[in-house]
Amino acid sequence: MILEDGGWIYEIDTLDNENQRFDHFGCVKQIKYGNREFLSEEKTPILYQNKGVGICSEFSASSPIGFDEAGQGDWFVKIGCGIMKKSGTKYSFNKQYSFIPLEVHCQKKDKQIQFSSEQEEIRGYAYQYTKCISINSNCLHINYRIKNTGNRVLKWQSYSHNFFAADLKNQTGYELYFENVKDLKLQNGEKILVSLKKGFQTCQLNQTESFYVAELEKEKRNGKVELIFPNNMKIVETQNFSPVKVKLWMAENCICPESFYEGCVMPGNTVEWMRSYCFGI
Fold this sequence. Notes:
mainly beta, ten-stranded antiparallel sheet, seven-stranded antiparallel sheet, globular
């Protein structure tokens, strides 16, 4: 499906039903203006069917709802994907499980597309999920809404895996700014170069695949992220929530800053949150 406004083209679709990792609801696969493209994809996923592309979400990457308490062969809930049958003692999104995907409904109207579905009850866990993607010229807005229709509390962390296009093998001069980030560290604890600039903190991007975890200043908790390309193209992400953490993953073809939302909703209640992206040329 295509949304267009003022020369900006947004390619949006559901993910394949075989994908057991990323939210099937409305993946933004590409954003174009003229001959410029802003998004990329995961080139070498461990499981091809779990491949990430563009701007896509994931819920509970470490332990989906109901996994820990489930017995071997019991079902657990992966929000945005469906239900999976437990095998083994530790969850991994790089493992293939017996899987029943959600049935996703979509409705396109003017400059927005709405995706929705309802998860059947599994040991007291059930929900309705709606995602609305809308555009306004060079800006993209993603609104998430989850209603707890079960009788147990739903808790999760979710993030948007932003596959922002890059060419780190052949180009230098990318600048990435995190607002109120305290420290960026390699997973093994080794710090990378961090310096202040324009009220943000920036890291020096290297040219190899790498993964960083960052803590936010607890008293501020704003999660604005800005990526400036060598040709002065720009992507700015903002949120209407306070991220609990940010992560950064990079490969030769993409720079992926990830801001995490922590959700908790009681039975019968609803929560909403939003991410916005603005693009510059």
